[in-house]
Amino acid sequence: DSKVEKILFVVFSFVYLATIGGNMIIVITIIYSPALLGSPMYFFLIFLSLLDACTSSTVTPKMIVDFFYKRKTISFECCMIQLFAVHFFTGVEVIVLSAMAYDRYVAICKPLHYSSIMNRSLCGNLVVVAWVGGFLHSIIQITFTLQLPFCGPNVIDHYMCDLFPLLKLACTDTHIFAILVFANSGTICIIIFSLLVVSYGVILFSLRAQSSEGKFKALSTCGSHITVVVLFFVPCILTYARPTSAFSFEKNAVVFTTILTPLLNPMVYTFRNKEMKNAFRKMRKKLISFVTEFILLGLSHNPKVEKILFVLFLLIYLATIGGNMIIVVTIVCSPSLFGTPMYYFLSFLSFLDACISSVITPRMIIDFFYERKTISFECCMTQLFAVHFLAGAEVIVLSAMAYDRYVAICKPLHYSSIMNRRVCGILVGVAWTGGFLHSIIQIIFTLQLPFCGPNFIDHFICDLFPLLKLACTDTHIFVILVFANSGSICIIIFSLFLASYGVILFSLRSYSSEGRCKALSTCGSHITVVLLFFVPCVLIYARNTSAFSFEKNVFIFSDVLTPLLNPIVYTFRNKEMKNAIRKI
C-alpha cells in the first residue's frame, strides 16, 4: 500500500535520526566525562552505542529508500554485504553485553577486588574479543550462505537480507544449513541469555546480606543493562532459535532487533541513569562555556527597512516552499518522470532546497520584529548542523545529477543499464550519509571552542566563520579544518563539474546541430543550478576568517535565493516539467 509506505517512510526516518542522534550523544557524553570514561561499564557502553548506530545504519537507510519503489531490488553482492554486516555487529554486541554483565557481577559480588579485576587491560581485551568473535560468527554465516545455489525464485519476503529468508530461496535441501544457523545464532542467543539470567540470579542471591539501601543502589546499576539484555535477546531467540518455517510476526521481531532496540538503548541509559544525566548536564555546561545565547545583528538596524525586508523574504520563502513542493509532487505523481534518474534526483534536490530554506528563512523573518535578535546556544548549534547537513547532501545530489548527464550523453547505449534504480537509490543514500558526516565533523569541532564573550554575531544565521571570530582561543587550526571540510570540497567538486562538462562538450563534436542542441538543453538547467550553488559556496568557505564587504549578501544568495531560483530554472527551461505540471 503506497499510502502506508509513505507513513512508514516518515516514521522510520525519524526513528533512524533519533537512533543515530541518541547513540552519538551517549558516546560524546562519556568521552567528555573522564569519570565515566574511566569506568568499565561506561567504557563498554561507548562500544554498545557505536554498535547500535552501525546496526541501524546497515538496515534502516536501505529500507527507507525502498519505500519509494514498487520493485525493491538489491544486488547479490549488496545482499551478502548486508547479511555479513548485520551479523558482525550483532555478534560483537552479544559479547559486549556479556562483558557488561560480567562487570556488574564483579562490581556487586566482589567489590573489594573490582578495580584489580576490571582493569583497563582486561576491558580492552574483552572489546578485542568482541570484535574478533563478531567477525568469526559472521564469516561462518556468510561462508555457508555463499555455498547455496540460488537459481530462482528471487523474491525475499522480508525488508532485508537475512538467513532464513535466503534459505527458503535456495535450490537445494537446506536442512543441514538450518541446523548450522541454529547452532551459530539460535543456540548462542539461548546459551548467553541463559548465562546472563543465571549471573543476575547469583547477583540477587549475593544481595541477601546487604541492607535495603545497598540492594537498591546495587540493583539500580543493573537495571539499565537488564532492560537492554531483554530487548536484545528475546527477539533474537524468536528469530533464530526456530525452524525455517516463518512465524506470523517474524519481520516484526527483526524490526524490533535491528531498528527499534538501537533506538531504545539510549533512552534506557539516559532516562534511568542518574550518572549519565548528570554527565550530560556537565558536558553541556562545559561546551557552552559562559555563553548561553548569541545575539544576531541581522541585515539592518533600520525599522522601516526591516519591515520591507520582512514582506520581501516572507514572499520569497512562500514562493520557495511552493515552487519546490510543486516540483516534488509533479515528479512523484508522474511515473514517467519519477522513473527517470534526472527527475528522481531533482525531487530530492527540491526537497533539500525546501529544507535549507526552512532552516534559515523563518528564523530571519521572525527576527525582523525584534530589536534584540537572540538565539540560544543549542538552537545556534542545531541550525549550524542542519544547514551543513542539507547543503552537504545537496552537493552529492548535484554530483549524481552531473554523472547522470555524463552517462546520458557520452554513453547513451549503456544509460539504462548504468543508471538503474539500484544505483540511483545508492547515490541518494550516499548523499544523506555524506551530508551527515560532513556536518557532524563541523559540529564536533565547533563544540570544542570556548565561547566566553562577546556574543554578538554579525550575521543573520549561525555559521562557522562568524562563530570562529567569537571563540576565546586561537582558531587558526579550526580555520584550516573548515577550509578542508567545506572550502576545498567546494573547489574540488566544482572543478570536477567543469571538467565533466568539458568532456561532454568534447564528445558532442560528432553530433549534428540538432543533436547538440537537444543534448545541451538537458544540461542547461543543471549547469545553471551548479553555478548558483557553488560560486557562493567557494566565496564563503574558500577563504580565511576575515570578512569581505558582501559576505551576508552572498549568504542570502546561497541559502535564501538559490532555493527559490532552482524551481524557476527547472520549470521555465524544461518542457517535460511544464507538460507534467499541466497534466496534474
Task: Describe what is shown at a glance.
The chain has 22 helices and 3 strands. It is mainly alpha-helical and 584 residues long. Helix 3 (40-66) crosses helix 10, helix 3 (40-66) packs antiparallel against helix 17 (421-447) and helix 15 runs antiparallel to helix 17.
Features:
mainly alpha, three-stranded mixed sheet, 22 helices, globular, Rhopdopsin 7-helix transmembrane proteins, 584 residues, 2 domains
Fold blueprint:
Elements: H1 2-32, H2 34-37, H3 40-66, H4 76-109, H5 114-117, H6 120-146, H7 163-167, H8 175-206, H9 212-240, H10 250-271, H11 274-288, E1 293-296, H12 303-333, H13 335-338, H14 341-367, E2 373-376, H15 377-410, H16 415-418, H17 421-447, E3 456-457, H18 464-468, H19 476-507, H20 513-541, H21 551-572, H22 575-583
Parallel strand pairs: 1-3
Antiparallel strand pairs: 1-2
Keywords: G-protein coupled receptor, Membrane, Olfaction, Receptor, Sensory transduction, Transducer, Transmembrane, Transmembrane helix
Organism: Myodes glareolus (Bank vole)
Family: Belongs to the G-protein coupled receptor 1 family.
